[in-house]
Amino acid sequence: MIDSFGREIVNLRISVTDRCNLRCSYCLPEETMTWLPRSEVLTFEEIERFVRVVAPLGIRKLRLTGGEPLLRRGLPDLVARLVQVPGIEDLGMTTNAVGLDRLAGPLRAAGLSRLNVSLDAVDREKYREMTRRDALESVLAGLDAAGHAGFAPIKVNAVIERDRNLDQVVPLARLAREHGFVLRFIEYMPIGRGDAWRDERVVANAEILRLLTAEVGVLDPVGEPDGAGPAQRWRWRDGAGEIGLIGSVTEPFCDHCNRIRLTAEGKLRTCLFSVVEHDVRALLRGGAGDAEIAELVTAAVAKKEPGHRIGRPDFVKPDRTMSSIGG
Q1: Phi, psi at 23, each rounded to 5°
Q2: Domain assignment present for 230
Q3: How many Å apart are CA 67 and CA 12, to the nearest integer?
Q4: Which pLDDT value is given to residue 254?
Q5: For residue range 209-230, what is the model confidence (pLDDT) as tens digits?
Q6: Per the domain annotation, does 110 fall within a domain?
Q7: Dihedral of CA 163/310/219/256: which sign?
Q8: Of 107, 116, 121, 300, which cross-links 168 as Cys (Cβ 3.0–4.6 Å)?
Q9: Taking Cα atoms as reference points, which of 282, 182, 315, 255 lies closest to residue 6?
Q10: Which residues does the chain have with pLDDT short of 50?
Q11: Where are any strands of DSSP class E within 109-154?
């Protein structure tokens, strides 16, 4: 599938639940959330069918997201189903790693190939402040279990906010160097229903790079083929691993975006910041044939947005949390 801007769409992100066991300040409000009724969430059979429809259209890479995907009961079974779909070459997952110590082995055995773990602080109190939960020890145990299960390299994603966790950039880098993680810093974005977004909270890639160079060590740029990923890659000159910088706000990669997203209740989104959704679940449960589902997908891709337009006068913030869209 190629959209109207010449971007080839090969990557599908699948949210398996909108539920989350954390309340990260940039994503969710602290008060009680109203989650989707289970009857509205796609079944494993429905997810597998959709993947079997879009794989012949060119989808080669899948990523399971949430909410928190580990909260979805029987997740290794879904992994085992999806890795058997012809044409699927890669299956990853983004998780907060709470509970990963119990599931890392079964997920690896089922065929999960890659892990991205969200971790915004290594200080326990700072982590609790960011996530509103005291779960850092569980996350670290999950990372350890993932390494023992054979996941390598493990990517650690950190969202940095200037007035919250800028002081965690260097400790996160040292943790990653010590354990061989690929650390990726992601710019704070205007999405979610947590604290009100302010552009002065954004910490640009260049500032993080200067901080790391001054406090940790020299970094050299790593070339990467176009379309291989959104991160600008840098390698420590002393050989102790690499980092990635994802400038979603100040240096957007929209021109090379190759993703579409399926929400937990079966809505197809062609951009994280889409204000239009396409109802896949209605077709899956309404007796539609595979050709009709494929037609909906190709028509949606043909109208994929040129970019998110953050910071421009016509920017419209989606009326959804990140947990309900799928990270």
Answers
A1: -135, 60
A2: yes
A3: 16
A4: 78
A5: 999 999 999 999 997 644 456 7
A6: yes
A7: positive
A8: 121
A9: 255
A10: 225-227
A11: 114-118
Does residue 1 lie within any of the structural domains?
Answer: no
CATH number, domain with residue 94: 3.20.20.70
What residues contact 326, with CB distance under 8 A and at least 6 apart? 13, 14, 15, 65, 66, 67, 261, 262, 263, 264
% of the chain residues with pLDDT over 90: 73
pLDDT per position as a tens digit, 39-77: 999 999 999 999 999 999 999 999 999 999 999 999 999
Element of type H or E holding 265: none
Predicted pLDDT of residue 26: 78
Q: Which amino acid is at 222?
A: V
Distance CA(319)–CA(66), nearest Å, equals 17
3-state SS assignment for residue 65: strand
Q: Are strands 232-236 and 219-222 parallel, antiparallel or unpaired?
A: antiparallel
Provide the pLDDT for residue 312.
59
| Residue 278: both structure tokens together | 């396409």
Helix (H) / strand (E) element for 284: namely helix 280-284
Separation CA 212–CA 201 (nearest Å)? 19
Owning domain of residue 321: 11-325
Q: ∠ CA 108-153-132 to the nearest 5 degrees?
A: 80
Buried b (16+ CB within 10 A) or exposed e, 150-186: ebeebbbbbbbbeebbeebbbbbbebbbeeebbbbbb
168: which 2 tokens? 């965690």
In a domain, 102, yes or no: yes
In the chain, how many domains are there? 1
